[in-house]
Amino acid sequence: MASRRALAWIEALAWTLLYGGLFTLAIGAMVRRADAPLGWTIAGCALAAAALGVALIAWRSRLREDAAEPNEMMKEKEST
């Protein structure tokens, strides 16, 4: 169980890593023409970031949202 805030944070991080990794992969492919070792290093790091983004998306899909936020539960208890 995770809060809405945590789920939103995980989701934003996952998509940032995925798209950022793919964008950096393209940059690594362009750099590889001028400096092969540097291009491969950039591409390798980019692939790792994109793979981590995919893994976070898969993990996020399995998480469930809490029934209610802890603050909302406390307000309900106080009002009764």
Automatic annotation (TrEMBL):
Keyword Membrane part of the UniProt annotation: yes
Transmembrane segments: 12-31, 37-59
Keywords assigned: Membrane, Transmembrane, Transmembrane helix
Protein name in UniProt: Uncharacterized protein
Species of provenance: Ramlibacter rhizophilus
